[in-house]
Structure formats: structure tokens, C-alpha cells
Amino acid sequence: MTLRLGIIGHPVAHSLSPAFQQAAFDASGIDARYERWDTPPAALADRIRSLRAPDVLGANVTIPHKEAVLPLLDELDPFARLVGAVNTIVGRDGRLSGWNTDGPGFLRALRDSAAFEPAGRRFLLVGAGGAARGIGFALARAGAAVIAVWNRTPERAEALVSDLRRAFPAATCEVQSSLARFRGFDAVVNCTSVGMEGSGTEGVLPFDPEETESHCLIADIVYKPELTPLLRAAEAAGRPVLGGLPMLIYQGALAFELWTGKPAPVEVMFAAARAALRASVRP
Ligand code: NAP
After folding, report:
1. Do residues 205 and 239 make contact, with C-beta atoms less than 8 angstroms apart?
2. What phi, psi does 14 have (nearest 5°)?
């Protein structure tokens, strides 16, 4: 039986997950087909119900459904419950469990691609959307000393900081009121969509990396283009950098490992994602 998986979102036409997940299944010799499951909000409950079929191994979940799927699942991993968002669903014997591999994927990218250990370090998150939530909770769980959050809409930063404080009283979590001051951070992470192809902010910097201290890691979770305007400017300023592609691949690798119980062929996934990115570059 050919197993089935897919990415559930709206829209999903531009997702890279089908390219690199299919490559991972093929390289691992698993007979599976990873599909695009474009699902408008009104069709979400039916889509989730369809995952209970015996040939479905699971799914990824993306914008706008990461929060809406929670009540439709049978079980939640404690970390997904803490974050309040699910990006990976695992089907077993007709039962569905929800997981969040976005934050853990960012941690693995930090450690494996930037050789950066988050414990005891001071982070500034620029943005407070779904991705920032997963990253913030993963950093707090990994023992980050400081997590500051700036967001264009301040109420969202305040909500994330208060949720982090409640769950991790030992970490220092605070709202950052301005992007003019960057002293005292070991890493600044762009968690907004600013600079992303198709966002209307192509070529725009979410902040000026020259304002950070010289040792500060500049991470961008935007992966399209792979070398974002922020990463270019940070490199030109001599800062260490981490792009968004490693996070994308490692969140997918963790999902693959949950579905299959096998180690993910990470290099194959990177190569397939880069090929898909090159193919999608606009002329
Ligand atoms: P989201 O929940 O919609 O949050 C979007 C964030 O971007 C919010 O903080 C929003 O601020 C901010 N923002 C949007 N436009 C802005 C602008 N012009 N100026 C300043 N801030 C702006 O989306 P998300 O799921 O967190 O995703 C955010 C980005 O991360 C997307 O580009 C997505 O592709 C990327 N991402 C990458 C990975 C990866 O694996 N590498 C994983 C997940 C997401 P407001 O609250 O003020 O609107």
C-alpha cells in the first residue's frame, strides 16, 4: 500500500515541503506520496477526519490552520499544547496526535548549522506571530537566559511575553519597545515575514544589523530567497548569520522522524529544497 501524507494550509501552492519530504521518503525507500492539500477554513474538519484512513501516515499544517486544528485531534504533545499550535499530525491506528516541530527545528538549526548553544544566551525575537511563539517557547525550554520580543503590533508581543513568563518563570522575558537599541543580545531573530518573496516587502530590512553588537548572531527565519536582504546586510557587517532554510528542513526532519521512526536524510532534504527554491525563483 502506498502511504499518503500532505501539507494542509491555504494556500499551499508555493510550499517547499512536498519537494523535500518526497525526496526524503524516496531516499529512505518508503513507498509514500506527499501531496499538497489546499484546505480552506470551512473544509478543515473534513480534511482532518480524512487523515484517519489507514493509508495516511500524517500531515503537516501551515498558515492559517496551526491553531484551529488543536480541538480536532485526539492527543497533543505537551510542547504543542504549551505553544498552542500544531505543525505536524501523526496518524496511528485511526488516532491523530498533534506536534509542534517549528521551535525544536529552529533549535536544531541553531545548534547544527550555526554551532550556537542557546542555554544561558540572550535573544531578541523580532515578530510575535506563530513562528515566534514556537521559537520563544523552544528557547525558554532550552534554558535561554533572556527572551525579549518586539512586534509591530505591541499587544501580540505582550501576550507572548506573558505566556512565556507563566510557563517559564526562571527565564527573563520582556517586551522590547524599540528596534533602535540592540545592546545586550547574543542573537537577534527575524520572525516576521519582512524580506520574504511575495510578501510585498522584498528587499526590505526588518531591522539594521549594524546596530547589534559585533558578536551577535543574526538569524532570519525567512527562507525565500535563501539569502535574504537581512542576511546579506548582516554578512556585510561581519556578523555571524543563520538563514531560514535550516529551520525549515529540521522542522521537516523532526516530522519525518515522528511519522516513520527513522532518521531523516537531512542532506537529501536540503538538496531537494534548494533545487525547488531555484526552480521557483522569479525571472
Ligand atoms: P504570522 O503568524 O502571520 O506572523 C507574522 C509576523 O510578521 C507578525 O509578527 C507580524 O506583525 C509580522 N509582520 C508582517 N508584516 C510586517 C511588516 N511589514 N512589518 C513588521 N512586521 C510585520 O506568520 P508566521 O507563521 O509567524 O511566519 C512568519 C514568517 O516566518 C513567514 O515569512 C514564514 O514564511 C516564516 N516561517 C519560516 C519557517 C521556517 O521553517 N524557516 C517556519 C515558519 C514560518 P503583526 O503582528 O504586527 O502583524
Report:
1. no
2. -100, 5
List, for the chain, all residue ranges whose pLDDT scores fall below the cut of 50.
none
84 lines ligand 1 (CB under 6 A): no
CA 226/CA 8 separation, integer angstroms: 23
Mutate to test the pocket of ligand 1, among 192, 245, 250 (most ligand atoms within 8 A of CB): 192
- Classify 90 as helix, strand or coil: strand
The 10s digit of each residue's pLDDT in 82-132 is 999 999 999 999 999 999 999 999 999 999 999 999 999 999 999 999 899
Report in angstroms the alpha-carbon separations of 72 from 49, 86, 133, 270, 280.
8, 11, 21, 32, 33
Angle, helices 102-114/130-141, rounded to nearest 10 degrees: 60
Domain 3-100+246-280, CATH: 3.40.50.10860
Closest atom of ligand 1 to 128 CA is 9
Q: Over the stretch 243-258, which tens digit does the pLDDT of each residue have? A: 999 999 999 999 999 9
Residue with cell 542557546: 118
What does the block give as the cell for 188? Answer: 537577534
Homologous superfamily of the 117-239 domain (CATH)? NAD(P)-binding Rossmann-like Domain (3.40.50.720)
Q: Give the pTM.
A: 0.96
Residue with grid cell 485511526, as numbered in its chain: 94
CA dihedral 145, 266, 98, 35 (to 10 degrees): 140
Helices (H), the chain: 17-27, 44-50, 78-83, 102-114, 130-141, 154-167, 229-236, 244-260, 266-280
